[in-house]
Every structure is written in structure tokens, then in C-alpha cells.
Specification:
The chain is mainly alpha-helical. 79% of the residues lie in helices and 0% in strands. α2 crosses α3.
Amino acid sequence: MSYFFCYFCSMNIIPLSERILVNKDWATVLFVLAIAVVALNKTIFSIRFNEFIKLGYSDKYNKVYKDTNNLLSWFTISMFVIQLISFSFFILLLLSYFNYTKVDNYITYIQIITFLFVFILSKFLIEKIIATVINSESLVDKFNLIKVNYRAFLGFVLLPINIVMYYNFWPIKEVFFIILSVFVLYNLFTYYFLVKTFQKSILSKLFYFILYLCTLEIVPYYFMYYWVTKN
């Protein structure tokens, strides 16, 4: 029997392909953790959560929870964590699409999420220092609270999209460009809302506001883009 099998193999070359086993357990754990945090927030802060998910078309949430103490509330911090997880996964998918890394490379993901956290924290601390120097702590804190709210909402919306893209391998260029375009437009909308809300305060300190936009809202992202593309 073995003789006939060997003879058959020699006469008919059977193409063998390597079976690559991709370990996605770490990603599954993070996705489950993020979903669990969302479920917990929906249960504990049901009214606040329902207003939060309307941020895409209503600014009522910002008006109701406008106290700057909300920057350090459990709800804001937990949604910020979801934002970090979500943005980091999207960047990982984007880098894997352009063959800079593998989609299952958890080392790269750790580097991305660490870099994002340090970048956001450093930017926040620099803003606090500058706000103290120009005596505008209250205004900058309100600015930061609204930005955190809108970007946390964007991370929340991006989470299910990341899950679908991660497990179904959607290497579609248009999907990435659509998401990036929405991100840019959404940020422009955020700044429009900020200017509209704090118009009087901004006009009274127009020079400082322009300086703030250039040094803390444009230059850091330009350098981050430059660093990523060059490295």
C-alpha cells in the first residue's frame, strides 16, 4: 500500500502550501475589553451615554456636561481608553495595508498605542503650561473637554469598523481614505464648533488663539506625519 502511495506521489506532484496560523487572541481580548467598557458605561451612565452617542449630530452633550471637572470623570477616562484602542487598531490596519507591518503584530500595536498615549499626554501638558502662562486655564480646559468628547465619540464609532476590518481582511484603499476624510472633516467640524462657542473669548485673545492653533494643533500632527512617513 505504501509502495503504491509513494509511486502515486512521484508521478503526481502534489503542491503543498504552508499553513500560516495567525494568533489574534490579543486583539480579541482588547476588543472584548473595549466592548465591555462600553456596556458598563451604558449601564451605569445610561442617560449620559445616550446623549454621548448623539454627538454626531447634536451638541447637547457638550452643553449639559460642560463642567471642566468632567475631564477627569470615569466616563470620560474610560471613553478615552476606547479611543486609544480604536485609533491604534486603525493605524495598525493602515500600516499593514501598506506592508509596513503585519496585522497580527502585537509588538507594533504596543508601540503605536504607547506612542499615541505619550503624544496626547505630552500635548495636553504643554497646553496646560501655555494656558497658565497666558492666563487662560479655564478657556483651554473647556477647549480640551470638547475635543476629548468629539474624539472619544469618533473612537467609539470607529471601534466596530475596526473589528470588521480586522477579522475580514478588507484591504480596500477607498475604505481607508473615506475614514481618513471623515476624520479630517470631523476635526474641522470640532474646531468650527469651538470657535462658534467661544467666539467672544477667542476674539479678545485672537493672537494667542492663532498661536495655539499653529503650535499645538497643526505642527504636532505635521511632525507625526513626517516621522511616520520617513521611518
